[in-house]
Design goal:
The complex is a heterodimer. By secondary structure, chain A is an alpha/beta fold. Chain A has nine helices and six strands. Chain A folds into two domains: 98 residues, Peroxidase, domain 1 (Orthogonal Bundle), CATH 1.10.520; 74 residues. By secondary structure, chain B is an alpha/beta fold. In chain B, helix 5 crosses helix 6 and helix 13 packs across helix 15. The relative contact order of chain B is 0.11. Classes of the chains: A alpha/beta, B alpha/beta. At the A-B interface, strand 6, helix 8 and helix 9 of A face helix 1 and strand 1 of B. The structure holds adenosine-5'-triphosphate and magnesium ion.
C-alpha cells in the first residue's frame, strides 16, 4: 500500500462519527506496536490461516483494550488483507491528529549534551521561533501550537542549532556555516569589499 | 583569486557578527532512493516543476517529475556521491547559468563550470536556461545574411541572421565541419558564437576546440560541452544552457549570435533515457510524448529582434544525425518541421569526393533568400538549375551514349560547377570571392579549363584579382552588388587566356 493508501484509511477512521481522536491515536499506536513484532507479522502473512482465525486472535488480544470502532477497523483490515499496513496507517493517523490539534514535532539537533535547564531554554527559544515564523515553516493555522520536540546530539555539527520540522529545516550549525563558506571561497564570490568593510567595522 | 589567512579571518569575523540576523528556513526533502542519475525524494512538497534542487553535498538537480508521494529529481552531476537519506533542499530558482563576456573563449559544461583548466569564470551575470521565446511583435523578418563561407551553401541555401537551418546527414558526412567553418567565417563580423557539443567523445570536442583556437575563432566563441561520458541530464540541458549564454549578448548588447547544437539526436536520446528511468510512458521509438516540445521550445528561441528590442539576432544551426539516410525517422521529421530549411549531406557524395557533400537537390532554405546579397542572388540564379540538369543528364553520360553537342556542353558545364563548389575544410571564403568564382563558372569561363585544373583556376583567380584588381572585391563587399559586368567579363577573359597559356 502506498502512503496515500494508508492516509485514506486513516482519514476514514478519523471521520467516523463520535470517534475520540486522541484516544484512537493511542489505541492505534498500541496495536501497531504489537504487530511490529516479526513473528506476529509472519503469522498474519501466513495464507493458510483463515481470516476468521486471525480475527479471533485480534479479538482475544485487543478487545478489552481498544474501542469498538478500532476493533471493527482491525477486522476490516483483515478482510481487505491490509493488516500489515497498520504501521503506516497509525503514522498517517497521528499526522491527522497533529493537524487537528495544532501539534508540531520539531526535531532539534545540537552539537553536545546540555544540562536539562539549558536544554529547556533552547527548546523554548525554538518554540518561540517556530510560533513567530510559522509561515516560513509551512504552518497555516493561527492557533497556539502544542510542541512535542525530539532532540538529538550530533557532534559533527560543531555548534549551533539544527531544526527540522516536516519539510522545513533551519540550519544554523557551525558546520553548515563553514561549508557555505568553503563554497564561497572556492567559487571566488567572496568580495574584496567585504574584507575591507569588515576591517572598518572592527 | 588568492586568499590569504588574514583575509579569511576578517571575512569570517564579519560573517559571524552578522550571523543569524535573518532566519533562513529552507524547504527540504529526503532522498528515498538514487540510481541512474535519478533521485526520488520524499518531501519537498512545494517544489515547482523544473526548479533547481540542491543536495546536501552541493550537487544540483532539477525537479522533473512531481508525483503524489515523491519528487523525481534529475541529478546534474555525480549521482554516485548522493546517498539515501541525504537532504535535498529547494532553491526556488529555475536553473540558471553564468553569462557575459567572461565566458567568451572558454570551454564550459552546461552549468557554466570551466572545463578548460583556465580558472573560474569571473562573472556575476546569470540567465535562466529556459525562457519563453519572444513573440511575433518583437521580431523582425530575416533579411541579413549569416555567411557560412561555404560556396555551395551561401549561393544556393543561403542562411539569414535569426534563421534556424538544420544540418542533417549520416555519420561522418561533414556535418560538424560545416558548422565549424561557419563559426570560423564569423571572424571580424562581430558575431558571438556558441558551439554546444552534446554526447560526443571528449577527444572529438578537444579537436574542434583546438581548431577554433588555431583559426582565432575562440576570441568570439563559447564552447559548451556535455560529453558522452557525462550524465544524461547534462546532455539534456546543454542546448538550453548554450542558448541562454548567447541570449545575454543578443538581448543586452543587441549583438548577432550564432548557436550550433551538435547534435540534437544525442540530446533526444539523453532525454529518452531520463524519461524512461522516470517511468514516463514511452511512445514512438520509445521517446516520450513530449519530445517534439523538447526541440520546438529550443529552436523557437532563434530570433531576429526588431529595432525597438535592440536588433539582436540568434541564428540556430541544429545538427541531426540520421541512420542510413533515414530522414523520415521520428526525431529527423520533428526537427525538419520545426526549422526553416535543411542542409542535407549525402554519404555517397562524400565518398565520391564532393565535399562538402551537400545534396543541392533536396536542401532548402525557406527564408534565407531574402537575406542573400544582391550580387550573390544574381550570379547564383542559374546555378541550382544548371546543377539539376547536369544531375539528370549525368546518368546518360555514364552509359556512354552518343550525345548531341548541346547536351555534351551541359554536362561539361556541370562537371566544372561541381568541381567549383568543392571546398576544403577550415577555408571559408568571403562572399566577394564566392561571387566572382561562381560568376566565372555559370558564365562559362571554366568550360575550356580541364576539370582537374578548376580548383587551381579558382585559387589563382582570387589571388590575381586580390593583387591587381582589388576594387572588384571591394565593390562587391561594400555595395553588395556586382561591379559593371562588362568590366568583370573583360577581367575574366584576360585571366582565362593567361591561365590557359600557363597550363598548356
Ligand atoms: N569539406 C571537406 N573537405 C575535406 N574533408 C572534410 C570536409 N568536411 C569534412 N571533412 C572530413 O570528413 C570527416 C568527417 O567530418 P565531420 O566530423 O565534420 O563529420 P560529422 O558528420 O560531423 O561526423 P560525426 O557523425 O562523427 O559527428 C572529418 O575527418 C573531416 O575532416
Ligand atoms: Mg560531428
Amino acid at each position: 500500500m502506498t502512503d496515500g493508501g494508508a492516509y485514506t484509511y486513516a482519514m476514514a477512521l478519523s471521520s467516523v462519527d463520535g470517534v475520540d481522536l486522541k484516544k484512537t491515536e493511542e489505541e492505534l499506536l498500541l496495536v501497531s506496536g504489537v504487530l511490529k513484532n516479526e513473528d506476529i507479522k509472519k503469522y498474519f502473512l501466513y495464507p493458510k490461516i483463515s481470516q476468521a482465525e486471525k480475527k479471533e486472535k485480534l479479538k482475544n488480544a485487543f478487545a478489552a483494550l481498544v474501542s469498538k470502532t478500532v476493533m471493527n477497523f482491525l477486522y476490516l483490515l483483515i478482510d481487505k488483507n491490509r493488516e500489515n499496513h497498520i504501521q503506516q496507517i497509525s503514522h498517517a493517523f497521528t499526522q491527522i491528529v497533529d493537524q487537528e490539534y495544532d501539534r508540531v514535532r520539531p526535531h532539534v539537533s545540537l552539537s553536545r549534551n546540555y544540562p536539562e535547564a539549558e536544554l529547556q531554554k533552547i527548546l523554548t527559544m525554538v518554540e518561540g521561533l517556530v510560533s513567530a515564523k510559522r509561515d516560513a515553516f509551512g504552518i497555516s493555522s493561527p492557533a497556539k501550537l502544542e510542541f512535542l520536540p525530539e532532540t538529538e546530539v550530533k557532534p559533527e555539527m560543531l555548534g549551533g542549532i539544527y531544526l527540522r520540522l516536516g519539510d522545513y529545516m533551519w540550519d544554523s550549525s557551525i558546520s553548515r556555516f563553514l561549508r557555505d563558506w568553503k563554497v564561497k571561497v572556492l567559487s571566488g564570490t567572496i568580495e574584496k569589499d567585504a574584507v575591507i568593510s569588515a576591517d572598518i567595522a572592527e | 583569486m588568492k586568499v590569504n589567512t588574514d583575509e579569511i579571518i576578517s571575512v569570517l569575523k564579519k560573517e559571524i557578527t552578522s550571523y543569524g540576523n535573518e532566519l533562513n528556513v529552507e524547504e527540504v526533502g529526503t532522498v528515498l532512493e538514487v540510481g541512474d542519475g535519478i533521485a526520488r525524494i520524499y518531501g519537498l512538497t512545494g517544489v515547482m516543476a523544473n526548479e533547481m534542487v540542491e543536495f546536501e553535498n552541493g550537487v544540483m538537480g532539477i525537479a522533473f517529475n512531481l508525483e503524489e508521494n515523491s519528487v523525481g529529481v534529475v541529478v546534474l552531476g555525480d549521482y554516485l556521491k548522493i546517498r539515501e537519506g541525504f537532504i535535498a533542499k529547494r532553491t526556488k530558482r529555475i536553473l540558471e547559468v553564468p553569462t557575459g563576456d567572461a565566458l567568451i573563449g572558454r570551454v564550459v559544461n552546461p552549468l557554466g563550470e570551466p572545463m578548460d583548466g583556465k580558472g573560474p569564470v569571473n562573472t556575476k551575470k546569470t540567465r535562466p536556461i529556459e525562457i519563453i521565446a519572444p513573440g511575433i511583435a518583437k521580431r523582425h523578418p530575416v533579411l541579413e545574411p549569416m555567411q557560412t563561407g561555404i560556396k555551395a551553401i551561401d549561393s544556393m541555401i543561403p542562411i539569414g541572421r535569426g534563421q534556424r537551418e538544420l544540418i542533417i546527414g549520416d555519420r561522418g558526412t561533414g556535418k560538424t565541419a560545416i558548422a565549424i567553418d561557419t563559426i570560423i567565417n564569423q571572424k571580424g563580423n562581430d558575431v558571438i558564437c556558441v558551439y554546444v557539443a552534446i554526447g560526443q567523445k571528449a577527444s572529438t570536442v578537444a579537436n574542434v576546440v583546438e581548431r577554433l583556437y588555431k583559426a582565432g575563432a575562440m576570441d568570439y566563441t563559447i564552447v559548451v560541452c556535455a560529453n558522452a561520458s557525462d550524465p544524461a541530464s547534462l546532455q539534456y540541458i546543454a542546448p538550453y544552457a548554450g542558448t541562454a549564454m548567447a541570449e545575454e549578448f543578443m538581448y543586452n548588447d543587441g549583438k548577432a549570435t550564432l548557436c550550433v547544437y551538435d547534435d540534437l539526436s544525442k540530446q533526444a536520446n539523453a532525454y529518452r533515457q531520463m524519461s524512461l528511468l522516470l517511468r514516463r510512458p514511452p511512445g514512438r521509438e520509445a521517446y516520450p510524448g513530449d519530445v517534439f516540445y523538447l526541440h520546438s521550445r529550443l529552436l523557437e528561441r532563434a530570433v531576429k529582434m526588431n529595432e525597438k528590442y535592440g536588433n539582436g539576432s540568434l541564428t540556430a544551426l541544429p545538427i541531426i544525425e540520421t541512420q542510413a539516410g533515414e530522414v523520415s525517422a521520428y526525431i529527423p521529421t520533428n526537427v525538419i518541421s520545426i526549422t526553416d530549411g535543411q542542409i542535407y549531406l549525402q554519404p555517397n557524395l562524400f565518398a565520391a569526393g564532393v565535399r562538402p557533400a551537400v545534396d543541392v537537390g533536396i536542401s532548402v532554405s525557406r527564408v534565407g533568400g531574402n537575406a542573400q546579397i544582391k550580387a550573390m542572388k544574381k550570379v547564383a540564379g542559374t546555378l541550382r538549375l544548371d546543377l539539376a540538369q547536369f544531375r539528370s543528364l549525368e546518368a546518360f553520360a555514364q552509359l556512354g551514349t552518343e550525345l548531341d553537342a548541346a547536351t555534351q556542353k551541359q554536362i561539361d558545364r556541370g562537371l566544372r560547377l561541381v568541381e567549383l563548389l568543392k571546398q576544403n575544410q577550415y577555408q571559408p571564403l568571403s562572399v566577394e570571392k564566392q561571387v566572382v568564382g561562381i560568376y566565372a563558372g555559370t558564365k562559362g569561363y571554366l568550360d575550356g579549363i580541364p576539370v582537374h585544373l578548376v580548383q587551381k583556376y579558382e585559387e589563382e583567380l582570387y589571388k590575381w584579382i586580390e593583387a591587381s584588381h582589388k576594387d572588384v572585391f571591394d565593390h562587391i563587399h561594400n555595395k553588395k552588388e556586382l561591379p559593371e559586368e562588362s568590366k568583370l567579363k573583360q577581367l575574366l577573359v584576360d585571366f582565362t587566356d593567361q591561365f590557359k597559356k600557363e597550363h598548356k
